[in-house]
Amino acid sequence: MEPLMESFTTELRRGTLTLAVLSQLRTPQYGYSLVQRLEKAGVAIEQSTLYPLLRRLEKQALLTSSWDTTESRPRKYYVISEYGSDIYEQLKKEWETMTAELKTLLEGDENDEAD
Predict the structure, then answer these.
(1) In 19-70, at which residue ranges do the beta strands (DSSP E only) sit?
(2) Are 22 and 57 in contact (CB under 8 A)?
(3) 58 near 76, Cβ under 8 Å?
(4) Across residues 2-27, what is the average pLDDT?
(5) pTM given for the model
(6) Fewer beta carbons within 10 angstroms: which end of the chain, N or C?
(7) Under a CB-based contact definition with an 8 Å cutoff, are residues 63 and 84 in contact?
């Protein structure tokens, strides 16, 4: 991918990944299970992107985490906090508004090209 296009794509994905991650943490998930859930939904995310994002969201009090040490390999589980749920709902509404507005603009471009 061309470097400029890659830069624009990264900028577009950055905010949407936060929304995607928050949407999947109504039930506790550990990192790998979260990657799998997102990939199943068509959202690819590298672990090198996911873990810093999870740490940042936890630092912002949007997530809480706990260790499960009952199995041979301890896993850190993340779940959305009450504050995170409030933020998620607001972000979701903002996303829906923005996508509707952009859809109108982009469809306008297609109609202008057809004229």
Answers:
(1) 29-30, 63-68
(2) yes
(3) no
(4) 93
(5) 0.86
(6) C
(7) yes
